[in-house]
Amino acid sequence: MSQQAPPRGQPAPPPEPTKGLEVGLLPFIASIVGILLVAGIIGGVLWFTREGEEGDVATTTAATQPDGAVDGAPTIEVETDGDVLTYTVSYADYQPGDTYRLVKGPDADALDGAEPWPLRDGETTHESNVGSGERECARVQVRRGSQVSAWSKTVCEEGAR
């Protein structure tokens, strides 16, 4: 079909529709591919840098391991003064740089899932406020670099009534 010039003073007829790939479709497809690529990169980075998936796994080391091995378990004692419980921890093989990790809960069973409370380097006591008659249990372990000791025995105490 040939296009003829319209008579003078009349608008030109609309152009015939084109067949094939529209020019606007290519940028749309490219943007979808780009979004998927960025999402894949972010997902990969998050996958490889995830933390805490396996949690802290307590390991004990034998005395025959190289220098710096953590052997045995620390001890923990608790004193009550009204509604304040004071935990005192000690470890026979304490070395500078060792830190203690304390877990607390309302009973011994609650300690398994409790988040450890780190004591600062050299700190050996921790105070905890409890309500009158409320019970709190705790245990502690030593962290030396990437190694941790066995957990201490669990101690439980009630706030004064």
Terminal Cα span: 102 Å
How is the main sheet built? 5 strands, antiparallel
Give the count of helical stretches: 1
Helical content, roughly?
10-25%
Q: What amount of the residues lies in strands?
A: 25-35%
Radius of gyration in whole Å, from Cα?
34 Å
Strand and helix layout:
Blueprint: H1 25-48, E1 75-81, E2 84-90, E3 99-105, E4 117-118, E5 125-129, E6 135-144, E7 147-148, E8 155-158
Antiparallel strand pairs: 1-2, 2-5, 3-4, 3-6, 6-7, 6-8
Give a written overview of the molecule.
The termini are far apart. 15% of the residues lie in helices and 27% in strands. The strands form two sheets. Strands 3, 4, 6, 7 and 8 form a five-stranded antiparallel sheet that branches. A three-stranded antiparallel sheet has the order 1-2-5, with no helix packed on it. The longest helix has 24 residues, at 25-48. It is of the alpha+beta class and 161 residues long. Residues 55-66 have low confidence and may be disordered.
